[in-house]
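Duplicate of #3305? Posting structure anyway:
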């Protein structure tokens, strides 16, 4: 049987323990038995979010959690600011526009981030901005935004800070409370090692004040309905029961490893990936100062068809990485290091990348990428 190694930025690999939990017989959700699971799931999520704020669990993908954040906080005509530098930052703008919310966009060049000073100056100019939307890990370019600094700036204004932590949660450090993140949207199928299907939204007291007055049209994604039943440990509609049960298992694994250790694990894998790419003479796409630990974006060398590279790795060798999106289609590849994977998964990925690059005509010393990554992983030992 061909391997199915997922080095993709979601879905990510699901560990055997979580698969076992997913295979358990379904239980009914309006029962004391499920309430115990739900309570534990919410408490566990708060630990991963590093927050005391409430966290709502939705049956949706990450975009659902993002949309729920927009329509639950705002009213048509409210002014918002989007701080972005990629496809997922653009998604905030698209969602706001769908609800008739005018956006002021502060754009970073792709592969880079926006500094807090620019945001501070823009917020000083317009004190009527209700919310600032940004992204923790911009999966389309492979950068991580400085949420801590943005939080410091937004905290001093009437606006709330809303972060897309869909791919970052559990992989890249985000101290929701300490960094004054009012709302953070995330999902199950990235750092939390589950299949897609759960969306999460954390909400601060400041954001809840906004939510009370929100007039955007909404029904399923009205987070007030989730808030209303939270105290009675319930969900307004049928939750994704099996996924909530499995979430407990993945959170147990995260707790056993320790959150800080996991961040360090992904940082190490990201660094090894970068070393591997450089060892092959490839250029990294993201600026070094903000390169993400969630995934590494690598420029496809001149003359090589990036889309073909991804396709051959997946279809002939069972190693899935991602290609570029939008204007980066065919120009970069993205190797994710989130979810359930270790250094040997990564080395397999780099070995496969070498093989296919060579087949497509790129010249380098075979094994150079794996050697560079290995050297780094083994603390600089020469092989
Ligand atoms: N934001 C980011 C940063 C993402 O990486 C993704 C998924 N790649 C999304 C939002 C959208 O999530 P979904 O596809 O689960 O709706």
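Output from current build:
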């Amino acid at each position: 049987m061909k391997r199915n190694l997922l080095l993709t930025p979601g879905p990510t690999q699901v560990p055997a323990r979580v698969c076992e939990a997913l295979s358990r017989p379904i239980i009914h959700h309006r029962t004391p038995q499920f309430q115990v699971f739900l309570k534990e799931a919410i408490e566990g999520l708060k630990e991963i979010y590093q927050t005391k704020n409430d966290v709502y669990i939705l049956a949706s993908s990450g975009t659902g959690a993002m949309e729920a954040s927009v329509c639950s906080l705002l009213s048509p005509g409210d002014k918002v600011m989007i701080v972005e530098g990629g496809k997922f930052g653009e998604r905030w703008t698209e969602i706001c526009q769908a609800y008739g919310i005018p956006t002021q966009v502060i754009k970073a060049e792709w592969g880079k981030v926006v500094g807090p000073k620019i945001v501070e100056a823009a917020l000083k100019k317009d004190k009527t901005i209700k919310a600032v939307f940004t992204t923790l890990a911009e999966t389309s370019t492979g950068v991580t935004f400085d949420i801590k600094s943005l939080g410091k700036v937004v905290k001093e204004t009437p606006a709330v800070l809303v972060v897309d932590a869909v791919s970052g949660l559990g992989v890249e450090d985000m101290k929701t409370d300490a960094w004054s993140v009012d709302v953070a949207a995330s999902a199950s199928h990235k750092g939390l090692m589950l299949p897609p299907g759960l969306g999460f939204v954390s909400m601060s007291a400041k954001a809840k004040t906004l939510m009370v007055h929100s007039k955007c049209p909404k029904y399923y994604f009205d987070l007030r309905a989730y808030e209303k039943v939270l105290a009675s440990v319930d969900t307004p509609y049928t939750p994704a029961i099996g996924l909530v049960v499995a979430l407990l298992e993945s959170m147990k694994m995260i707790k056993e490893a320790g959150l800080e250790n996991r961040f360090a694990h992904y940082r190490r894998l990201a660094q090894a990936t970068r070393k591997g790419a450089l060892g092959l003479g490839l250029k990294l796409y993201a600026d070094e100062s903000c390169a993400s630990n969630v995934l590494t974006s690598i420029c496809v060398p001149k003359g090589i068809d990036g889309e073909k590279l991804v396709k051959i790795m997946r279809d002939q060798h069972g190693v899935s990485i991602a290609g570029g999106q939008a204007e980066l289609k065919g120009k970069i590849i993205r190797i994710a290091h989130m979810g359930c994977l270790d250094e040997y998964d990564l080395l397999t990925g780099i070995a496969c990348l070498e093989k296919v690059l060579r087949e497509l005509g790129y010249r380098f010393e075979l094994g150079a990428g794996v050697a560079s990554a290995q050297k780094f992983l083994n603390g600089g030992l020469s092989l």
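Confirmed duplicate; merging threads. The chain has two domains: 5-9+258-377, 16-256. DSSP finds 13 helices and 14 strands in the chain.
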